[in-house]
Inverse folding.
């Protein structure tokens, strides 16, 4: 499965989590995301997400001068960002649980119907 | 952000900004702030053994950036958020063309980028960028040189041209390395397009400039070719003249003048001078001597020119010439013993009447040429029969026209 499609939906919360862990500048955030296992994350996507979260008021920003190179723009989370993060964390956990159950084959029957033992048995046999 | 970054990073960021130029300046700053530092660090992470880091396509990068930032893609409805009425017809047409071209080019480019040799190839091409900087500087110089200095050679011909060429190279390299982006505010929309247009012009002009280097330049050089002085017939020097009468028999010695009374000299001044110094004139192997008139002038228009022969000098025992015999002049034999007699004038049967008569002595004074014979009837060309069909109407019996009719 193309993980870049999956990443699009969760990049916000991933970036929030990384920055909440410690302040960081653009490429630093990219590096930490990749170190965490999101190898396919595009740096432009991360930078754009940082800017959008900043514009949404979830991040703070400050510039750190550098002697040998250009200035670095650091980002950190503020109270709004932390609230957003915990909110999205709950959303993600619920979503991930659902997907895990779905993909594991533990599909609950629609409300009001009775379970079909034959299907159940067939699925056990397949497993 | 004015500190040193890699030139490719600076130019890449400039390109990315150009692709975001439909956004407000604040949005562009917000999106690309700190981008130089990030990209520079990304490139710095490349280990010596790794394939060269590739920043990729600036347009795609900009698109990813703005998509992740939640901004509308370029060219989307209301694209010009900075206010105003949306893109004009020209811009929309350009964007449409741009989309069509991208529809063809982008899949090819994507396929190329997936090739294992692509990073190496791209790096090699990128390494040749300075060559292009110099080439476009040369094109610029050649155009300026042609426009203002009336077009010199392939290289500057003077100090000013050299300075101009070096200036062009300097500006081009500085542009290429992104050093002028700040001072010239090239991050904007139109300046970038102007630079792009100039690049296109340079690409188009380059073949012409290069081909003009190779083309031979022709110059007119005045040369003095003594071989074509005097009388020339079909490109060959006339060295002697033999006259025949109407019946086709050799005449002997004649003096010849042209229509203006100028002597029809076969030899020319260098030969004459040589004769005066040495006593002989050697015209292509013939030893000839001119007649001399009663005023002691050499006459190179009296024919046939006598052939001069010079006996072998006598040598003494010591090898030095002891005596020289006088040269002997003879009239050279005519090349043709006789020629066919003439009977009539072209197109005029009665013209045969002209055949019999020797040139009628003209009553008019001859032209005052220095070569005219004093005291004798002028035999100049003006006395020749003017019975040609083009003159004197239809009458073939026209008498020779007097030379007074000439101007």
């Amino acid at each position: 499965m193309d993980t870049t499609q999956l990443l699009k939906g969760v990049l916000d919360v991933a970036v929030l989590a990384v920055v909440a862990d410690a302040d960081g500048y653009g490429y630093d955030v990219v590096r930490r995301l990749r170190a965490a296992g999101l190898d396919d994350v595009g740096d432009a996507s991360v930078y754009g997400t940082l800017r959008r979260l900043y514009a949404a008021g979830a991040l703070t920003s400050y510039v750190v001068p550098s002697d040998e190179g250009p200035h670095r723009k650091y980002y950190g989370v503020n109270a709004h960002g932390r609230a957003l993060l915990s909110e999205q964390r709950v959303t993600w956990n619920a979503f991930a649980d659902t997907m895990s159950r779905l993909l594991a084959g533990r599909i609950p029957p629609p409300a009001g119907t009775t379970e079909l033992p034959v299907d159940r048995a067939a699925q056990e046999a397949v497993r | 952000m004015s500190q040193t970054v890699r030139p490719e990073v600076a130019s890449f960021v400039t390109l990315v900004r150009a692709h975001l130029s439909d956004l407000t300046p604040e949005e562009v700053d917000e999106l690309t702030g700190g981008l130089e530092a990030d990209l520079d660090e990304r490139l710095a992470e490349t280990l010596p053994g790794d394939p060269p880091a590739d920043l990729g396509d600036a347009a795609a990068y900009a698109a990813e950036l703005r998509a992740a930032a939640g901004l509308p893609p370029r060219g989307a409805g209301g694209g010009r958020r900075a206010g105003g009425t949306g893109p004009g017809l020209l811009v929309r047409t350009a964007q449409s063309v741009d989309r069509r071209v991208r529809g063809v080019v982008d899949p090819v480019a994507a396929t190329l980028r997936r090739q294992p040799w692509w990073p190496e190839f791209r790096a090699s091409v990128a390494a040749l960028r300075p060559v292009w900087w110099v080439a476009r500087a040369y094109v610029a110089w050649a155009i300026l040189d042609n426009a203002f200095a009336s077009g010199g050679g392939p290289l500057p011909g003077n100090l000013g041209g050299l300075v101009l060429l070096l200036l062009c190279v300097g500006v081009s390299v500085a542009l290429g390395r992104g050093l002028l982006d700040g001072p010239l505010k090239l991050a904007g929309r139109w300046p970038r397009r102007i630079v792009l247009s100039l690049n296109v012009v340079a690409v188009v002009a380059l073949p012409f400039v290069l081909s003009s280097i190779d083309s031979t330049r022709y110059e007119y050089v005045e040369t003095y070719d003594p071989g074509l002085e005097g009388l020339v017939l079909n490109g060959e020097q006339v060295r002697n003249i033999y006259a025949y009468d109407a019946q086709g028999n050799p005449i002997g010695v004649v003096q010849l003048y042209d229509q203006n009374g100028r002597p029809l000299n076969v030899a020319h001044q260098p030969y004459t001078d040589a004769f005066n110094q040495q006593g002989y004139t050697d015209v292509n192997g013939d030893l000839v001597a001119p007649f001399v008139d009663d005023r002691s002038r050499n006459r190179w228009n009296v024919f046939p020119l006598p052939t001069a022969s010079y006996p072998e000098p006598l040598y003494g025992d010591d090898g030095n010439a002891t005596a020289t015999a006088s040269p002997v002049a003879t009239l050279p034999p005519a090349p043709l013993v006789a020629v066919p007699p003439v009977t009539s004038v072209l197109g005029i049967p009665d013209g045969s009447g002209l055949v019999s008569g020797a040139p009628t002595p003209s009553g008019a004074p001859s032209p005052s040429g220095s070569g005219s014979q004093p005291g004798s009837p002028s035999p100049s060309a003006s006395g020749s029969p003017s019975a040609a069909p083009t003159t004197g109407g239809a009458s073939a019996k026209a008498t020779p026209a007097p030379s007074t009719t000439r101007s």
User: Anything to note?
Assistant: The domain at 3-108 of chain A is CATH 1.10.10.10 (Arc Repressor Mutant, subunit A). The mean pLDDT of chain A is 82.
